[in-house]
Amino acid sequence: MTKTTIDYKNIYYPPGGILLWLIIFLELITFGIALLAMVYSSREEPESFHNSRLLLNSTIGAINTVFLISSGFCMAQSVTYFKLKNLKKTNLYLKLTILGGLLFLGLKGYEYADKIALGYTIGYNTFFSFYWMLTLFHVIHVLVGLVVLCSLQLTLNKTKLETSTENIASCAAFWHMCDLIWILVFPVVYLLL
Amino acid sequence: MKQTTYTLLALILLTLIAAYISTTAGVYTAAGILIVSACKFVGISCYFMEMKKAHVFWKIAILIYLFLFTVIALILI
């Protein structure tokens, strides 16, 4: 059996694969444009945006950021241990990654329930239209990421170390994309007053 | 592996700094928050996503994206 090593310095082989990186850039551009549209709208209706932002709990946003960042760290550790052929730690960190994602979704669910109970739904005003669209779109990405990670976990349990490093790196790149998007969403939606 | 751990600690610290800056009312509050977020973005892409090992094209592409996003956001605010 021949062992192939990926040369990440090759322009066609970024970590995670070129196709995934094209998707990552498309996602970043989509979210970027939506966030800039939100910033532009806040200039049009400054008072409404200021008052609406005060209705959000930035502490919840910050805790969610920590959850996602820690989850991303665990994913990076999982990839590292897989490369070192340590399946036990790979599995452990993968489970912690999934846990981080679930905690994020749990807290987001609590925040959504609170906003719905208070009547701040998608049609409440322009700010909340952006809030719901941007954060829900991000939550969908996190959900897809969790499905990908769970399937990776199952594959790892079945095939042990036969899974290719590229597969794990691709799953990791998708998960980190969720981190990157949140890193842009959090300051614009929760912090910029 | 130590580098990844240091990155995690730095990212958490930067999140706290961004949250603190947002409580201060100043001319440069928005700029401060966006610059701190840009630093977090670089940290995740370089150290978690291993972009530092990638071809220079990908590194420049991500930096150009980040630069454009931050500058346009600052102009629009």
Summary keywords:
heterodimer, A: 193 residues, Four Helix Bundle (Hemerythrin (Met), subunit A), 80% helix, B: 82% helix
Describe it for me?
- The complex is a heterodimer of chains A (193) and B (77).
- Chain A has 193 residues and is mostly helical.
- Chain A has one domain: Up-down Bundle (Four Helix Bundle (Hemerythrin (Met), subunit A)).
- Helix content of chain A is 80%, strand content 0%.
- Chain A has six helices and no strands.
- Chain A has helices spanning 18-44, 46-54, 58-83, 87-118, 126-159, 165-191.
- In chain A, helix 1 (18-44) runs parallel beside helix 6, helix 3 (58-83) packs antiparallel against helix 4 (87-118) and helix 4 runs antiparallel to helix 5 (126-159).
- Chain A is elongated and about 55 Å long.
- In chain A, 39% of the residues are buried.
- Chain B has 77 residues and is an all-alpha fold.
- Chain B has one domain (2-76).
- In chain B, helix 1 packs antiparallel against helix 2 and helix 2 (29-48) packs antiparallel against helix 3 (56-76).
- Chain B is flat, with a radius of gyration of 14 Å.
- The termini of chain B are far apart.
- Classes of the chains: A mainly alpha (193), B mainly alpha (77).
- The interface between A and B is large, with 47 and 41 residues.
**What count of domains describes the coordinates of chain A?**
1
Helix content of chain B: over 70%
Q: What are the secondary-structure elements of chain B, in order, as H or E?
A: HHH
- State the share of residues found in helices of chain A, binned by percent: over 70%
Main sheet: strands, sense, barrel of chain B: none
Fourth CATH level, the homologous superfamily of chain A: Cytochrome c oxidase, subunit III, four-helix bundle
Radius of gyration of chain B, CA atoms, in whole angstroms:
14 Å
- The poorly predicted ranges of chain A are none
How much β-strand is present in the residues of chain B?
under 5%
Mean pLDDT of chain A: 91
Number of domains of chain B: 1
> What about the largest sheet of chain A?
none
Output the number of helix runs of chain A. Answer: 6
How far apart, in Å, are the first and last alpha carbons of chain B? 39 Å
The CATH architecture name of chain A reads: Up-down Bundle
* CATH-assigned fold name of chain A: Four Helix Bundle (Hemerythrin (Met), subunit A)
Would you tell me the structural class of the helices and strands of chain B?
Answer: mainly alpha
| Class from helix and strand fractions of chain A | mainly alpha
